[in-house]
Write a structure and sequence with these properties.
alpha/beta; 8-stranded mixed beta barrel; two-stranded parallel sheet; 19% strand
């Protein structure tokens, strides 16, 4: 079946250039696509969403420049074991952009534009390549391994075979132990691309990589889909964790997810661990890992690697 999405932009006295006109038409076209395709959207200059769209268009150029000029920066946040029997600490890789003046731009500024204009796959490829490269350099210099989790967007799952092959090639190129790499996929992205997600996870799991289902608990059929995906970790959505001390319903949700996860031989991770009180409640429930400002704030990944013990210097 063939579908069409049409965007129309008016030419007015406020039109600045052909480029701005084409960007406006593209914006209208994207709105048409988001509304289910086979529609025509005429850009309303008084539309309350227009300013937001214009802002996103502005970010598109900056994202593309950052990819070309290598101006993205890796940050990471600690994922800490909450019980003695749990494994080692590991780190979630996060992304920041470096502005022309050297200032650091948080992801909330540019990632919505990357999502809207289908640039997330390019960002995912960059993050994976950069992370594995820095890990390989660190291991060569220090002899010390480091376990990391890398977020993947739903857009990258649209090409499961090619994306999996890229990861396999990078693991081989950098000679890394795939068991140190965990990929995080949000529950919503997995459900929206369930067949592609299953194919991708099955392929990359053969390399030895692990998977975490992020923001778990927000979907309507969470546990049904969970049986069909080979993941090792369940990351409990932070909206339940943040109110766990004062809201019995949130506490029950976290406990239920944790119980089902353990019944399926999965390890559980709680987001938004903002203080010791929340952490203690999670320990009582039996959640395996915690992540949040109460345990550690995001810092440049290079700083984390440099702070790890150097086994080569010890042997020397």
């Amino acid at each position: 079946d063939i579908s069409v999405s049409i965007g129309i932009a008016p030419i007015t006295v406020e039109t600045q250039s052909v480029t701005s006109l084409m960007n406006a038409a593209e914006t209208a076209r994207n709105v048409s696509k988001e509304r289910g395709r086979n529609t025509i959207h005429v850009l309303d200059l008084e539309d309350s969403n227009l300013l937001e769209r214009k802002e996103q268009i502005r970010w598109v150029g900056q994202i593309q420049s950052a990819l070309r000029e290598n101006r993205f920066v890796l940050y990471a946040q600690l994922i800490q074991p909450l019980t003695i029997k749990t494994g080692k600490p590991h780190y979630e890789i996060l992304l920041r952009m470096q502005d022309d003046d050297g200032s650091v731009i948080p992801p909330g500024k540019f990632l919505p534009a990357a999502e809207s204009f289908y640039l997330m796959s390019s960002i995912d490829y960059w993050v994976i390549d950069k992370t594995l490269s820095e890990l390989a350099d660190h291991i060569r210099e220090s002899g010390q391994r480091c376990q990391v989790s890398i977020n993947l967007s739903g857009q990258s799952l649209n090409d499961p075979v090619g994306f999996a092959a890229f990861i396999g090639n990078k693991l081989e190129q950098h000679e890394l132990d795939a068991r140190d790499i965990c990929f995080e996929i949000t529950e919503s992205a997995a459900i929206a691309n369930i067949d592609d997600a299953r194919l991708f996870i099955d392929q990359v799991s053969t390399y030895g990589c692990q998977f975490s289902l992020d923001d778990f608990g927000t979907g309507l059929s969470s546990f049904t889909y969970l049986k069909n995906l080979k993941v090792s970790y369940l990351k409990i959505d932070g909206s339940f964790v943040i109110d766990i001390v004062d809201d019995p319903v949130c506490e029950s949700m976290v406990a239920a997810i944790n119980q089902v996860g353990h019944a399926m031989q999965l390890q559980t991770v709680a987001e938004f661990v903002e203080n010791d009180t929340i952490m203690q409640k999670l320990v009582e429930i039996g959640v395996d890992y915690g992540q949040g400002y109460g345990l550690g704030k995001p810092v440049p990944f290079a700083e984390i690697l440099s702070s790890l013990p150097n086994s080569k210097s010890k042997s020397a």
